[in-house]
């Protein structure tokens, strides 16, 4: 055989654990096969995968075959017509042009150098198929990663200490999720230590109710910040970073306690029972992310979303709502997806300002990144957004 190392270096591109650390049989991280027998390696790898599958099916998850290369979106579907593809391509170019030299996004008017916004912009490029090593936006992803790493504090907190922001744990959650996705989709082993520290900080700051709040202390909690941390933990777990099951279980309890009789979700457990689309869609996504796929809470939640599909009650958070609603419909699939996503897609396309989206409060880069991620959900290229 021309490639004696194909097992650890090639088969690991197909296999990775769904929880805990790396499978003991596959300790090495995925790296591409660089020999001339690529097709033979892929054939043999597939055979071995089938043999391993019977005894390991409950412990692995699938990673895109092109883990270390720019990924190609699937063939155009009825959910991504020519208009959607064109607008998405133009918006990605616009966003790339807005990146600052230090890897951040935004101007003095739109609060630049934010960890959260930079992470979301990086996720928008990942959703298009680019990775740090390849793709039209590889450089932009890499620069975002470098900024994120520069913000890593000794305790793992991802925060720009030179910038005062409202709710920095939002940024930490989005930043951790972004680093986890990059770590799982590339050969950036230098990310592991800081990613683990970021995850450990989230674990350590979960409060007694099971949630998280604006700052890294286990005091109060709200549903929005909690959803952000749950997604970060799942992304890290997908990438091979250990996350205690009880942390996720407590978060699920908190999320369910926030659900109102109408199926929507309130902001905090002890707040008035006021439901909103943005946070309700976010809560549904977090439940799916936590592994809940068949539960009355999901059914009631989607009944609420269907009744409020126009998103008119969340105008101030319309991009946040679009970001999470697209994911919620995608996870649910079936009629929820086929009926819900086209409405959301068309609303985003109708509201685009030539090549970007605008938000006077959070900034155009934030709005464009959120809209781009929502529109690219059907690409199914980023593990944390996969069904």
TrEMBL record:
Question: Could you read off the lineage of the organism from its UniProt record?
Answer: Bacteria, Pseudomonadati, Planctomycetota, Planctomycetia, Planctomycetales
Record's protein name: Prenyltransferase and squalene oxidase repeat protein
Q: Which InterPro entries match?
A: SQ_cyclase_C, Terpenoid_cyclase/PrenylTrfase
Q: Does the keyword Lipid biosynthesis apply?
A: no
Membrane-traversing stretches: 43-62
Q: Which organism is it from?
A: Thalassoglobus polymorphus
Keywords, alphabetical: Membrane, Transferase, Transmembrane, Transmembrane helix
Q: Coiled-coil region(s) at which residues?
A: none
The molecular function GO annotations come to: transferase activity
Database matches in Pfam families: SQHop_cyclase_C
Domain named Squalene cyclase C-terminal: which ranges? 182-315
């Amino acid at each position: 055989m021309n490639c004696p190392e194909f097992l650890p270096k090639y088969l690991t591109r197909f296999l990775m654990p769904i929880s805990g650390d790396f499978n003991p049989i596959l300790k090495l991280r995925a790296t591409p096969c660089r020999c001339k027998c690529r097709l033979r390696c892929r054939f043999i790898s597939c055979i071995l995968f089938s043999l391993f599958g019977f005894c390991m099916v409950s412990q692995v998850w699938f990673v895109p075959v092109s883990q270390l290369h720019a990924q190609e979106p699937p063939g155009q579907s009825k959910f991504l017509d020519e208009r959607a593809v064109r607008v998405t391509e133009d918006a990605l170019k616009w966003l790339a042009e807005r990146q600052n030299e230090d890897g951040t996004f935004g101007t003095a008017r739109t609060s630049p150098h934010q960890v959260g916004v930079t992470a979301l912009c990086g996720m928008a490029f990942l959703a298009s198929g680019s990775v740090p090593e390849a793709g039209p936006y590889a450089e932009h992803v890499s620069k975002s990663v470098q900024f994120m790493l520069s913000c890593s504090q000794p305790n793992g907190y991802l925060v720009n200490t030179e910038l005062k922001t409202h709710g920095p744990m939002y940024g930490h959650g989005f930043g951790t999720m972004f680093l986890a996705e990059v770590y799982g989709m590339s050969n950036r082993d230098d990310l592991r230590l800081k990613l683990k520290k970021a995850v450990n900080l989230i674990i350590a700051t979960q409060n007694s109710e099971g949630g998280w709040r604006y700052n890294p202390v286990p005091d109060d909690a709200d549903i929005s910040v909690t959803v952000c941390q749950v997604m970060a933990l799942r992304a890290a777990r997908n990438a091979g970073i250990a996350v205690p099951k009880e942390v996720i279980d407590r978060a699920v309890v908190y999320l369910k306690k926030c659900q109102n009789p109408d199926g929507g979700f309130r902001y905090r457990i002890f707040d008035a029972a006021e439901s909103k689309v943005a946070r309700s869609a976010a809560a549904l996504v977090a439940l799916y992310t936590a592994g809940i796929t068949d539960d009355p809470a999901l059914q009631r939640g989607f009944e609420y979303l269907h009744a409020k599909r126009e998103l008119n009650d969340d105008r101030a958070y319309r991009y946040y709502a679009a970001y999470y609603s697209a994911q919620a419909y995608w996870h649910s699939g079936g009629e929820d997806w086929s009926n819900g996503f086209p409405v959301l897609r068309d609303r985003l396309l109708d509201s685009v300002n030539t090549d970007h989206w605008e938000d006077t409060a959070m900034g155009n880069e934030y709005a464009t990144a959120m809209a781009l991620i929502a529109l690219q959900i059907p690409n199914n290229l980023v593990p944390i957004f996969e069904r």
